[in-house]
Write a structure and sequence with these properties.
It contains nine helices and seven strands; from the N terminus they run E-H-H-E-H-E-H-H-E-E-H-E-E-H-H-H. It is an alpha/beta fold. The strands form two sheets. A five-stranded mixed beta sheet has the order 2-1-3-4-5, sandwiched between helices. A two-stranded antiparallel ribbon has the order 6-7. A hairpin with a 5-residue loop joins strand 6 and strand 7.
């Protein structure tokens, strides 16, 4: 009989909860020692989101490939292994069909042995899934608030802006002038290649695709303003 441990942290959760891979390993070692077993190996999954199925995680795949009938898998918490209630139930059934036992420390041990443990697992998995949904909702709300206040959310800086000392996007005067030039040339009927060449001569290296997106964004914004003006003009006094 082989006894395998499985531990996982995503970068965000590790920082928020302090639940490091080393802490999880010590918990697993203590649990295995209490049962008089020998820990064969601990699969350490670092920087992998819980939303990724176990079979699609690098270490999770290795764990599944190594399992033989009679083996035991141990993890410190339900949400270290599974991404949803359905995922948990399906994987437990998969383990049972292969003759493998699953022990989750936060649920008291073996969750694959009987009907009562399966019911407990179902409820606990649902709560873990709801918690992940709440975390995603909080992250989305934070990003929406930051975007509303002009905060930089990461990725490539949009042309025409730079990152201010307060973390907000600030207009870059040089690039804004080039942006206005591009719109003026486009309104005069200049082809994209000619506009791209003109901007390149002034130090702005933009691809044709990038230039097209910038001009389209400007047209969409202008169209939105025009629609609002039309609404104002047709509003009865």
């Amino acid at each position: 009989m082989a006894v395998y441990g499985y531990s996982r942290v995503s970068v965000t959760r590790q920082a928020e909860e302090g639940e490091s891979l080393d802490v999880q390993r010590r918990q697993l070692e203590g649990y295995v020692m209490q049962h008089g077993w020998t820990l064969t190996h601990v699969y350490r999954e670092e920087g992998v989101s819980g939303s990724v199925p176990l079979a699609e995680r690098p270490e999770g795949r290795k764990l599944l490939d190594a399992l033989q009938p009679g083996d035991v898998v141990c993890a410190s918490k339900l949400d270290r292994v599974f991404r949803s209630a359905l995922d948990a139930l399906q994987m437990v059934e998969h383990f049972r069909a292969r003759g493998v036992s699953l022990h989750l420390l936060d649920l008291g041990g073996d969750v694959s042995g009987n009907g009562l443990s399966k019911l407990f697992l179902t409820v606990a998995a649902a709560f873990a899934e709801a918690e992940r949904d709440r975390i995603r909702e909080r992250v989305s709300q934070t990003k929406a608030d930051q975007k509303k206040r002009g905060r930089y959310l990461g990725g490539k800086l949009p042309f025409g802006y730079r990152l201010g000392d307060d973390g907000a996007l600030t207009a870059d005067q040089r690039e804004q002038r080039l942006l206005h030039l591009a719109h003026r040339l486009h309104s005069e009927g200049k082809p994209l290649r000619a506009i791209q060449s003109e901007l390149a001569d002034q130090g702005a290296a933009l691809s044709i695709g990038g230039l097209h997106k910038l001009l389209k964004k400007g047209r969409d914004a202008a169209s939105s303003v025009d629609h609002h003006d039309d609404d104002d003009r047709h509003t009865p006094n």
